[in-house]
Specification:
By secondary structure, the protein is an alpha+beta fold. It contains three helices and 20 strands. It has four domains: about 70 residues, conserved putative lor/sdh protein from methanococcus maripaludis s2 fold (Beta Barrel); about 80 residues, Elongation Factor Tu (Ef-tu), domain 3 (Beta Barrel); about 70 residues, RNA polymerase II/Efflux pump adaptor protein, barrel-sandwich hybrid domain (OB fold (Dihydrolipoamide Acetyltransferase, E2P), Beta Barrel); about 80 residues, Helix Hairpins. The chain is rod-shaped.
Length: about 350
Amino acid sequence: MLKKISGGELYLKKKFLAGIIAASFILAGCNEEIVPQKPPLVKVQQVKLSNAAQIENYSGVVKGRYETNLSFQIGGKIISRDVQAGSFVHAGEVLMTIDPKDIVEQSHSADAQVAAARAQLELAKSNLDRYSELFKSEAIAAVVLDQYKTQYDAAKAAHDAAVAQARQSQNALEYATLTANVDGVISEILAEVGQVVAAGQSVLKLVQTNEFEVVVNIPENKISNMQIGQRVTINFWATKDVVSGTVREISPMADLASRTFTVKISLPDVKNIQLGMTANVSMQDEISINAIILPLSAIYQTDDAAQVWIVDDGKVSLKKIEVVAFDDNNVQVRGLSAGDIVVVAGVHKLREGQAVRTGD
């Protein structure tokens, strides 16, 4: 027969069982051995001083050394375009034509003016000859002869002006056709058929292909290291060619938008190079004496300050440094001493004063 248990007795029994369970866990924990945790293992590098050449790399574009903006010497409406962007042309080849109708009418008008001026000249000469004979026979006074001489001179001047105007109109007929002045390639189309252009307005850009160059933009803090005649190394991404170039021209003024200076580099005769190709230009900036080179992974950046972790007596501490230059995955710094032990991996997992291991 089951015995009925009151609520108070049930509470005391639960509390007694809980105490027994807790005591058993404590006794079990006392029998386990506590293993101390080892400090984390870090990868380090000892600082060494060496001479390092600082190499600067810039992206450039292949262009023709001589580029010409072509334009008509007269204004008019374009009625034909015989080339496309990228077309190779030869000297004398027709590129564009403007409507010559107005020019033809001007030429006809000029010819008519020449004919009228010639008639006036012939009349003035006839009068001058006749009055010259009368003057010889003393039939007229000298002042009358002088008047006819003046009329003849004026008629001759008007005739010469009309002839010059007619020749100009004839030249204008030739100017209605735009031809290439040299062999080259059309790099840009600046006007289309149907467009009315003014005299001197650029309609095409012609690049001579007999000499190429690479154009790069140099930051203003590096331009002082550039010199005319300086040798640089040029690597073409598309063709894998590596050649040596010479700095030919340095812009005397920075671009107002980019604040960079345009530098033009002459190229030797390189095959398979096309206009517009990209090129990497490498140039030695300066040689640093007693330089300190570290992996880029060693830099611990906080705000604008560059720091590294220094290991001393098995503990790490941050030390501020100055970054001098970057080169691929390496960085040149100042502010360290020869023999310093620098953490070069996992720098963002450390804390000030933390104990570390540098070996097993």
